[in-house]
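User: Structure please.
Assistant: Input sequence and predicted structure:
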Amino acid sequence: MTYLLGLTGSIGMGKSTTAGMFKDIGVPVWDADSAVHALYAVGGEAVAPIADRFPDAVVDCAVSRPALNTILKADPGALSDLERIVHPLVAADRAAFIAAQDADLLVFDIPLLFETGADEWLDGTLVVTAPAEVQAKRVLARPGMTRAQFDMILSRQMPDAEKRDRADFMIQTLTLDDTRRAVQQLVRDLTGGKTGAHHA
């Protein structure tokens, strides 16, 4: 039986780094953001239906995120239309990923995991976390990031404390070595001690 583990965490908590650590030890990882990027790219399945509903959002045969964001800001009702187009396509991509794998453990990197109800179909959830001052230092070190932008992003995300309360597992991402050890231990726990995640 394959265990489906959701991975999430607020901005600056080390989610992408942690996802990479799962990949490093052979655990297949599905990335929600990458799936959306592929759907929006030239030839992506979301381009035509989005062009039908939001003609100004498609530039050079691909969905322009800045143009789409402008439309969403101007029309509060547009987001539900966009979600009706994109969510089924993302779900199909995820289903194809699951079907293509032969492993004891699969990880799903989903930024808005609890916000979108993904915990309903997952077997377990992992939240990565760090103290608020560490989070702020990491995010504000990013090029072009301002405190106002950071606060706006935080306001759209479920608070870290609530994510920790809802998650089945938690990893503190203070140092790379500690995080890596915690990932390896969790994989061992979830796969019955196998080091590689693949079926024997």
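The CA atoms of residues 44 and 200 lie 35 Å apart.
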